[in-house]
Specification:
Blueprint: E1 4-8, E2 14-20, E3 29-34, E4 37-44, E5 47-52, E6 66-72, E7 80-89, E8 96-98, E9 115-121, H1 143-150, E10 172-176
Antiparallel strand pairs: 1-2, 2-10, 3-4, 4-5, 5-9, 6-7, 7-8, 9-10
The structure holds FE2/S2 (inorganic) cluster (FES).
FE2/S2 (inorganic) cluster binds near residues 57, 90 and 93.
């Protein structure tokens, strides 16, 4: 688990990095500890949700249950499985909850487990915001100075072309609690 607290988030909530997005593909969940809370973070078909890991029935670790579907009966003697992957089933007595809302599937107005805000963000960089093309006194670095700084020189009348590896920072799943 790679939870770390970085900074105060919006609405007085604190930002906690859960993991890189690549570690939580669709259909997967991750259970993390944030202070005294245990929270399940879910990727449901590309959308991220977070639920308290506690069942309102008898306080079972709800998020350790099976990610499943809802069963409906369109007609007597028939049943249909819908919303596959959107429902968590309590491991103790089988009650089902909507992962997106925390509401009980069978009694949504009276039973629910708390939800938390989740976002996908690019981690903050160490960039100090300084202009890399400026001298310390703020004036622009002229061509020859720049060549010296980067170890390049003109080849004939062709301007030097340097290439650099560019890495796109991996996005992370972030929890606001
Ligand atoms: S504790 Fe979850 S259904 Fe009973």
């Amino acid at each position: 688990m790679t939870t770390n607290t970085n900074s105060a988030g919006s609405g007085g909530k604190t930002r906690h990095e859960v993991c890189p997005v690549s570690e939580l593909p669709p259909g997967k969940k991750k259970i993390v500890q944030v202070g005294n809370l245990t929270i399940g973070v879910f990727n449901v078909k590309g959308e991220f949700y977070a639920l308290a890991n506690v069942c309102p029935h008898q306080l079972a670790p709800l998020c350790e249950g099976r990610v499943t579907c809802e069963t409906i009966a369109p007609e007597v003697g028939e049943y249909e499985l819908i919303r596959e992957g959107e429902i968590i089933q309590c491991p103790w007595h089988g009650w089902k909850f909507d992962i997106a809302t925390g509401n009980s599937v069978f009694n949504p107005h009276k039973l629910s487990t708390p939800t938390f805000d989740v976002a996908v963000e690019t981690p903050p960089t160490d960039d100090d915001g300084e202009d890399e093309t400026a001298n310390e006194d703020g004036t622009d670095v002229e061509g020859s100075d720049q060549q010296a700084e980067y170890g390049t020189e003109l080849m004939g009348d062709q301007p030097p072309i340097d290439t650099y590896e560019v890495e796109v920072e991996a996005e992370v799943v972030v929890l606001y609690v």
